[in-house]
Amino acid sequence: MDQEYSTPSDATSLTVVMAQLDPLVGDVRGNALKAIEGVREARIEHHADIVVLPELFLTGYPPEDLLLRDSMHARVEEALETMAAQMASDVLVVIGYPALRDGKRYNVAGALYGGQWLHEYRKQALPNYLVFDEQRYFEAGNAPCVFEFKGARLALLICEDLWDDGPIERIKDQGVDIILSPNGSPYHVDKFEERVALMSQRARQAGASIVYVNQIGGQDELVFDGASFALDANGDTVVQAPAWEVGIMPVQFERRDERFVPLAGERYPWPTDEESLYCALVSGVRDYVNKSGFKGVVLGLSGGIDSGLSLAIAVDALGADRVHAVMMPYHYTAEISREDAAEQARALGVEYDVMPIAPMVEAFTETLSQSFEGLARDTTEENLQSRCRGVLLMAISNKKGLMVLTTGNKSEMAVGYATLYGDMVGGYNALKDVYKTWVYRLARWRNQQGDGEMIPDRVITRPPSAELAPDQKDSDSLPEYDVLDGILRCYIEGDESLETIVGRGYQHDDVERTIRLVDRNEYKRRQAPPGVRVTRRGFGRDRRYPIVNGWQPGN
User: Which residues are involved in binding deamido-NAD(+) (predicted)?
Assistant: First the structure.
């Protein structure tokens, strides 16, 4: 590309619109139409001169091995032609897509104006860590893209280019006014502050303003927060789009002393840690269910805090009319659990059934009695209860077209405190990457939001229990959750050794036992449903350990 074209007259002001939109991975035609509509809205509502959309927007991010299909690139080229023919001709549009050029695949940002694709920038820094594996799919570009539009010097950089020193260094002496940056930057706790702090440094390094446009919405385990923003050349935020909201937002630039500088505009406040994490879970569940085409969800409501929080998230994501809760009591289910589950279901207005599992458990026990003769009772009988519940939920799922939402938290999944083919049965898990201590924080936060008590207070304050045996408590089998979660963060997110974690003040026995449980239960996690990734290192895409191995805890 990089074609010659008639440069529009120099302007004294520019309106750059950040199009914070939610694509559907693989729906190239639909995403192209969404881009066309977004540009039309930006032109009508804000008289946009420039519109920037997120990274790889035409395919959705991340498209993964769809990129290896020849038909994918044929559809992308068709979409580029459609956009050139239908997009407003007096707006410069910057959008991300994959491009197959001379037999090599690139992650690019194209610039469209006047019905022509004028520039095509190839991403230089390809991330290959944690959830990212772009080096599997793309070749790295090796050249900057700087051009003039209406008298402003513009540069294109894509996502990781701004986390790497090289691409900024290559443009900082080219008199750039504005860096336009399409992004596919997934959320994790504390990502807002981390992202803006680094971009502020890059703006000062380049001596240029940055318009940072991020994707929004859920894609499998990843969730994108949006929270697009614009910085001036001093690294100060002048415009901040809201997190967790689809929409468009303008950034006004004015020519001063032969440079274009951004004017202060609307700045939405960052959400609190609890609000942001809760919104991430709601967004992940909503998009996974809706984009997968399910009518709604069904979940087991035990009267405990994990299922209670999961129910609240499901209702906020989908609406009460699309959520079905089922209480499946057994002999060890406390009366308080039955009462609290019924109260929450009634308060939230969801469909609610009570299905006792005693007849099922007894039938299995009788059938297995000869095979188990002479063997003492153990967790096998406990797990039978959980597996009976899984059968009921899957039957409802099949019959009604509802996805089973599982309810186990990250602390439990880490140490295997879950039943394979029992409470792990399902299609998605809102809490998969949420530590138990955070489950309590989120439950309390949700109850403080002014629309009534979503989770009964007794559910939050009573000691947690699986209720698979008489008087059972989680603390009978595990360290207290504040201790357990601290050890897990060190081991899972920090890859710290046993000795290092003990050196932080934890008891040796607690650490060793926890590490052995984490390592031993990798096989379970491989068979668990996907869930929203919200920490720096979740189970699934970015923590890959062998199931069978001889590794032992220690330095």
Answer: 383, 412, 524
Residue carrying the six token digits 């804000």: 46
Closest CA to 15 of 111, 96, 92: 92
List all residues 6 or more positions away from 441 whose beta carbon is below 8 Å from its beta carbon: 274
The DSSP string of 25-59 is TT-HHHHHHHHHHHHHHHHHHH--SEEE--TTTTT
Local confidence band at 475 (pLDDT 50, 70, 90 cut-offs)? low
Burial class (CB in 10 A: 0-12, 13-18, 19+), 544: exposed
d(C-alpha 343, C-alpha 362), whole Å = 29
The verdict on whether residue 307 carries a ligand-binding annotation is yes
CA distances from 205 to 208, 275, 340 (A): 8, 33, 56
Instruction: At 438, list the tokens.
Output: 């955070």
Residue limits of CATH 3.40.50.620 in the chain: 275-471
Query: Which amino acid is present at 147?
Result: F
CATH superfamily of the domain spanning 13-266: Carbon-nitrogen hydrolase (3.60.110.10)
Q: Where in the chain is the domain with CATH 3.60.110.10?
A: 13-266
Q: What is the pLDDT of residue 478?
A: 80
Tell me: pLDDT of 113 over 70: yes
Tokens of 321: 């009319």
The string of pLDDT tens digits covering residues 287-333 is: 999 999 999 999 999 999 999 999 999 999 999 999 999 999 988 88
Residues of the chain by 3-state class (helix, strand, coil), percent to 5: 40, 20, 40
Determine the length of the chain. 555
CA distance 29 to 506: 54
Distance CA 78, CA 151 (A): 31
In degrees, rounded to 5, the angle at the alpha carbon of residue 162 between the alpha carbons of residues 159 and 168 is 135
Q: Is 283 annotated as a binding residue?
A: no
Catalytic positions: 55, 123, 159
Known binding residue 114? Answer is: no
Tokens representing 495 are 């890859």
Rounded to an integer, the average pLDDT of 183-212 is 94
As a CATH number, domain 275-471 is: 3.40.50.620
Residue 291 sits at φ, ψ, to 5 deg, of -70, -25
d(CA 485, CA 470): 26
According to the annotation, is 427 in a ligand binding site? no
**pLDDT attached to residue 130:** 82
Tell me whether residue 129 is annotated as binding.
Answer: yes
137-151, 233-247, 391-405, 454-468: lowest mean pLDDT where? 454-468
- Determine which helix (DSSP H) or strand (DSSP E) holds 259, and give its type and residue range: strand 259-262
User: For residue 23, how far is the Cα from the chain centroid?
Assistant: 14
* pLDDT-wise least confident of 5-14, 76-85, 129-138, 255-264: 5-14
Q: What is the predicted pLDDT for the residue at 498? A: 93
